Amino acid sequence: MSSVLAVDLGGTKICSALVNLKGEVIKQDTCLTMPDSGFELVVDRILTSLKSVIPEGEQPAGIGIAVPAYIDQCTDRIVFSPNLQWHDVDLKKKLEDHLGIPVWLDNDANLAALGEHRYGAGKGCNDLLYITVSTGVGGGLILGGKVYRGAFRGAGEFGHMIIDRNGPLCSCKNRGCLEALASGTAIKRDAQKLVNFGQGSRMFSLAGSVEKVDAGIVGQAALGGDPEAQAILSRAGRNLGIAIASVMNLLNPEMFIIGGGVAYGVGHLILNPARDEAYKNTYPPYRKFLKIVPAGLSSDSGILGAAALAWDHLAV
Amino acid sequence: MSSVLAVDLGGTKICSALVNLKGEVIKQDTCLTMPDSGFELVVDRILTSLKSVIPEGEQPAGIGIAVPAYIDQCTDRIVFSPNLQWHDVDLKKKLEDHLGIPVWLDNDANLAALGEHRYGAGKGCNDLLYITVSTGVGGGLILGGKVYRGAFRGAGEFGHMIIDRNGPLCSCKNRGCLEALASGTAIKRDAQKLVNFGQGSRMFSLAGSVEKVDAGIVGQAALGGDPEAQAILSRAGRNLGIAIASVMNLLNPEMFIIGGGVAYGVGHLILNPARDEAYKNTYPPYRKFLKIVPAGLSSDSGILGAAALAWDHLAV
User: Fold this and answer.
1) CB B65 within 8 A of CB B306
2) Count of CB pairs separated by less than 8 Å, A with B
3) Is B137 in the A-facing interface, judged by CB distances under 8 Å?
4) What pTM, to 2 d.p., does this model score?
5) Which of B168, B156, B180, B183 lies closest to B251 in space, CA to CA?
6) Where are the domains of chain A?
7) For A301-310, what is each residue's pLDDT tens digit?
């Protein structure tokens, strides 16, 4: 048994890989998800992608899959996935029926946390929160060296911690969730608002139109030195820092690991304000323990976590 | 081995008890702490209190102690305790030297959580947050059936979760901590403010002076039907509910248990608004799992948790 299959299933892309026990990717494939095409066709694309990385004459021992979904704790069925537009589907059984090898799946943020814990920035660290800042804000917890899923398998919704009860509406319909204040979507909203007020000319000229101003444009402008774009990212980072402080006070983890496309793209422009604000808002005796680091595996946290999930099941 | 000794050491009172394995208190003693008298004299009072509950001719196998303190994770020394005015003292060694039996200590909120988990409202429940609403707001976590202390033994500071980043100053010098919005101290502040504005006549007449208006008076007035006092408690309860929602989203515990003097005194006047607001602010798919209950052991959560701590160490 030299390798397992791993899939990071996103709303945009399907990444498949053949991974060894050290967490090295031996072969990799990426294709589009196209969730609009429906469950069956997405499953077909996963199968095609997986088959392209299986070496000839070898049958990997199992598959780990990272899914942007809430998964039922008893049945392993996907209860719902907004990004994939899935409700109550059995991806595990579908793939097992087709491939004849065991499939294990978990929420993508949980598996990114596991990936960083096993192979990345969190190696050797037993208690950590992995945070992903991308279109939304998500999280995955490692507590006592294991993925912590809570009593109902939904633990880790860091993006729905409330830091400003009078703050803006979140996609979940509550007010002042971190996701409404620090996600790519929030950054885009803030930047478009600025442009609509006749400011943010650098962002506007990079984008070409108000509608095209998004977190990517804000990042590009900020990295180029635009103070208005930098201020938007700094505000997002400070909001992130407030929620990190709350978690530091509640859980005392050894480390916070920040990943996700938006955070990865702009690095210290979000991380430094997050660190400053987290430090200030942490309960004073715990401040010296605060540690906030960027993800070590960049966009591979999820897929390597999926591989680690498979390896863990095979080792039992 | 039929019983252990347990102590709940508070800023006001020392409670000592002889407790059997079922969590039944066989004998109990209460005396004043008088922290102003200094560490040595408080230790003397603990010893006197303990000796009064030790049955003649029997040597209990060990002592568990609940301390309102932050305890060093390596040395078991008390790093600091604001309520006791202690800095870096070794209570464990002191008592062991005097009594010649092993002493184990932990933070009082952690042990209240353990007490409720073992003998109270949380029996049979593996993942819970115990919340105490008294002068301050504290918390203790049971995760996976065990007290969760985090990487630095400070986990559970539920009162220092930030729910309103522009909110009032907290005793820890940060803004918008739950403790600044839902504790006995916050309730007192809100009530005194009202009275100073010429309102809150019912509370004022119960207290006799502005300075004497406190959480107890607010509770008394509210239970007697005073709508102004009820509104203050309701606001505190709703703030509690916001922080509970954040924890529900982050940790998905099976249960939240509310204890502490203030909550115990007014019951549903805080619990119901907390439930309403927590429900509204919980990430929608998790709402159906939300469970908020009053403590089952009232003021005995801590002492029975201290007994459970001793039993657990003796069972190893």
Assistant:
1) yes
2) 147
3) no
4) 0.94
5) B156
6) 4-113+299-315, 125-295
7) 999 999 999 9
